[in-house]
Amino acid sequence: FPDVMPVFAIKVISGLPTGFFMVMFAVISMNSFDLGASEAGYVMSYFGVLQMVVQGVLIGWLTSRYTDGTLLLWGVMLTSATGIGMALMTNVFHFCVIALPLVFALSTLGIITDSILTKAVPPSDTGTMLGICASVQPMIRTVGPTIGGFLYQNYGLSAFGYL
What we know:
Structural class: mainly alpha
Number of strands: 0
Radius of gyration: 16 Å
Order of helices and strands: HHHHHHHH
Strand content: under 5%
């Protein structure tokens, strides 16, 4: 299926930097943001609420008004812009400001790439494609601590934005 590989590559590549950051968030929150366990929990709760609102309200509204290709393009551009913001952030307030466009971009990319990929294969292969799409985040969480730890230790917090 010729249309599958470029979109799948976008899905994997766009998820790597933030996936590594989120896997490393416990360490980053203590070392870079000087947060305790409860404060880090509040930040993660904020991130979770943002995801619920964006995925529950905003994505459905956008998919009814724009094409998958347009939303994919905007998701990639917004992910790149938030990467610059992540490279420049120095405290937890900056992260909370960056979180809104970051969650929007990642949610859009995740949902839209799944939609494009399932439409690109015959109905008999839809389940297989959904399984492959669902395996991306666990794969990132598997290699994330090793790669994220290396990046954080050797290049600092800004490495996740430059990636």
